[in-house]
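Below: protein 1.
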Amino acid sequence: MNQYDFYAHKPSSNYHKSDIWLLISMLLLWGLGMFTIFVCSQSYAARFFNNDALYFVKRQLLCSGAGLILFLTIFFMDMETIKKLVIYLVLGTLVLCALTFIKPLSVEKNGARRWIKLPLRFTFQPSELVKFSLVLYLASYFEKMSEDVSGERDVLPCVGVFLLMVLLVLLQRDFSTSVFLVAIGILMFFVTGAKLKWVFPFMIFAIPVGILVITSEQYRIERIIGFLKPSEGTQSFNYQATAAKSTISAGGIWGAGIGKGLTKLNSIPEVQADYIFAGWTEAMGYVGVIAFIALLVFFAWRGYKAAASCPDRFAAYGCFGCVSVIVMQSVINLMVVCGLLPSTGIPLPFFSVGGSSIIVTLAMCGFILNASRCQEKAEDFTQFDDISVDTLTVI
């Protein structure tokens, strides 16, 4: 057990205090998310859960507690220990993904089996954990490969594990998340300096496969039609997107406030899930939208700054990947709610109701904050070539 010592081996003088502004931005995002769930979920919860208006709020708080435990564990854990545990995390994630195909252990919703049964009517969605596992796996792999990551023999085993994770998620009928994983993987390959010559033949193969997957399901075709022709299916397959746009417009500049002022909110089915930002917009208006975007940009800036300042390659790559997962999910979700992308199943981190999402998001935040204290003192600061401030600025 000595090789899994949970305490840092380096003197404390080699570590900075954690980025307090990064921590504050995380707490604000979580707090705003809980407030939005409180505002948006009460009517739906009261109708479907025995007049328990705070049903979703209470469950989100319980899951946040579990996420907080992971947050603190990962935050205080030595980076070397995390590196050694990555392989077990990946294997565990693959096993959990496989369990979704065993009917007695999984839950089916809307024709898809993406959730594992847990006690007290809780479920867990392994595809959320795949996001974190993939980032840490790629960070660990390229840290071991150091600067020599351009050879096919070095990259192909990594690509194999990467594609296996994507395939398992795709087989769960979670096309949106599988595409998101591909985007995160390619971004990680780019940042670590790997040559992307293998991407082009992969894309030649992936594009027709993607088209085939989209056209194989009626609801995916309807989502594309609803995006290209917003006036189609406004009372059927495109109802949720149409109602979200109406809700956003109702907020105006300053918002309608909370409580009885939210007249459009209840028109969105399951608004507490992927379309919860429409509820935030109606309550807080465009001023609230600007405030959220400013907070997200601030979080991204502090997170990417921590990644660029970290001398430990694994911590830097992992920090970059975790920040990118949270930020990219947020941007995609906002674009979907505003009608700039077709409907997807990508949740809004910190905001959307979902135990799996908030637990994994807080775990990633623990890693990001851990990486932020691995910075060398300013006078000794040396950036490594693979992640530079210029690269992160461009991204």
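Below: protein 2.
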Amino acid sequence: MRTGLARRVLAAGLVSLVAVAGCGVRPSDVIPVGDPPSGRVESTPTITFYLVKNGRVSAVTRPGGRLLLTDRLALLADGPTAREQADGFTTDVPFEAGPFSVTTEPDHPLVVTLSIPVGELSALAVEQIVCTAAAVTGPESPAQVTVVGAGQSVGPRNCPG
């Protein structure tokens, strides 16, 4: 009797398997749906400027639209956000360095004018300003930057990074 029970269980399993395998999607032709998506992928615009981390100038990006160069330079004097501080970023640009002004002329260095003497800035602060100003022009045409304040000047310099 055990063989009969085993045969019935096996038969029931095979019938179930055939029933399940018989259900499904019927074959069809390719269904045209048009061209794949194309065009630019919208991304959140970011701004780039330079802060100090581990004694070196490092690029930092924040979400945001287009900012004037003077506004980016003001970010240096404002210092890092709490999150950036937690990640080890600082600034060497003193708050008193602002407000900044920028002069540009074709085939001449960018001139960034501070509200304090340039001699009061550390080498890292000058580098932060130069790299932030150069980032606005883009990597395809790196800008030379001269930093001016209280009759003193440094530059023209390129961003070393």
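DSSP finds four helices and seven strands in the chain.
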